[in-house]
Amino acid sequence: MSYLLQDPIPLPKSPPSNDTWLPLPASTVSGDIDGLFDFLFWMSAVLSIGIMVAMTWFAYRYRAGSRAQNEVSEKTSDHNTALEITWSVIPLLVSIAIFVWGFKGYVTLRATPKDALEIHATAQKWKWLFTYPNGLQDDKLHVPVDRDVRIIIQSMDVLHSLFIPAFRVKMDAVPGRYTELWFHATETGDFPIFCAEYCGTAHSDMLSHTIVHPPGGYEEFLREYEKKLLAMPPVELGKLLYETKGCSACHTTDGTAKIGPSWKGVFGKQEALADGSSVPIDENYLRESIIDPQAKIVNGFPPSMPAYKGQLNDQELTALVEYIKSLK
Ligand code: CUA
Asked: What is the predicted pLDDT for the residue at 2?
C-alpha cells in the first residue's frame, strides 16, 4: 500500500555494483566493517581447510599398520613447552586483535556524531514511515550525501528492525521506546531498506528505499515535496493526513465506530455530548475537536484522543475538515 505522493523530483538511481560478494559500500563505516568481515571469513577459511588437510594427512601418515602395532602402549611422544606456548599465544594475540578491531567499530557505530541531521523512522506492520525535521513524512528515507544522519526509530506495534545493507547498519525498532542508528552516506543513489526482524505475515514485503541525494538535492526534495503538498486540493490533503497522522487508527470513514466516532456523514449532524448538551457539527466544531479534543466529548466515546494543537498548521486543519465534510 502506498498512500504518499509521487516523487516531486527525479530521484537518483542505484549506482552500478559489480561486487557479487557484499553490497556496494556506501557509508563511512562500510570499509572497516567489510575489512573485519573479510578478515574473519578468510582466517576461518584458511584455518578450517588447514586443519582438515592436516588431520587427513596425519590419519594417513601415522596410521597403525596392524592390530598388534595399534595396541602398543609405550610412550611415543612427549610434550613440547615451546610449541604449546606458541600455539596458545598466537591465537590469543589474534583474538585480542579481533576484539579491539570489533570494539572500535562498535563504538563508532554507537556514538552518534554531534550535529547529525535527525530523521524519525516509524515501523508499523508492514511499512516504514520517515518523518523529516520540517514535519513532512514519506515512506522512503531521503538523506543528503556526505552528512551525518541520525535515525531515531520507534515501532507502533511489534518488533521490527531497520536494516540498510549498503551502509552496514541495522537497529531494532522496539515498541514503547526509541532506538537509534547513524550513518554518513558516501555515495549518491537508491539503496534498499529491509525489515530484519520477523514481524508477521508481510514481514518480507516490509521494504523501502534510502535515497541519497547529491549536494542540494535533499533540500530541493523537501522544498518541492512541500510545494506539492501545498498545491493539493484540501480534500486530497485531508485524506493523506488522515492516513499519515494517526487519525485512521481511531476513526473510520465507512460509518463503523472504532475508538472514536466514524467520520462518515458526521458533518451537519446535531451531536449529543457527554455532558448532556448537544452541538451542531460544523467547521468550527471539527477544528476545535482536532486541536483540543477534550473540549466537547461525543456521548458514548472515551476522552482518549490526543490533542493535535501545534502538530497541524492551518492549511492542514482546513484540509482535514474538508475531508470530513466530503465523507457524505
Ligand atoms: Cu517489520 Cu519484519
From this structure: 36
Cα–ligand 1 centroid distance for 203 (angstroms): 4
Q: What is the pLDDT of residues 28-59, one digit of tens each?
A: 998 899 999 999 999 999 999 999 999 999 99
* Confidence at residue 1, expressed as pLDDT on a 0 to 100 scale: 29
Measured from the CA of 159, which atom of ligand 1 is nearest? Answer: 1
Which fold is adopted by the domain 1-56+112-231? Answer: Immunoglobulin-like (2.60.40)
Spatial CA neighbour of 2 closest among 137, 108, 106: 137
pLDDT at site 309 = 78
Question: What is the spatial distance between Cα 317 and Cα 315, in angstroms, rounded to a whole number?
Answer: 6
For residue 204 and ligand 1, the question of a CB distance below 6 A is answered with: no
Cα 207 to ligand 1 centroid, rounded to whole Å: 9
**Domain limits of the chain?**
1-56+112-231, 233-326
The finding on whether 160 has its CB within 6 A of some atom of ligand 1 is: yes
233-326: what fold? Cytochrome Bc1 Complex; Chain D, domain 2 (1.10.760)
Q: In 132-277, where do the E strands start and end? A: 137-138, 141-144, 148-155, 160-164, 169-173, 179-184, 189-195, 208-213, 270-272
Q: How far, in Å, is the centroid of ligand 1 from the Cα of 254?
A: 29
Q: What is the pTM of this model?
A: 0.69
> Is the CB–ligand 1 distance for residue 206 below 6 Å?
yes
Query: Given CA atoms 109, 114, 120, 122 in this order, what sign does their dihedral have?
Result: positive
CA of 149 to the centre of ligand 1 (A): 22
Which regions in the chain score pLDDT beneath 70? 1-6, 17-19, 70, 72-76
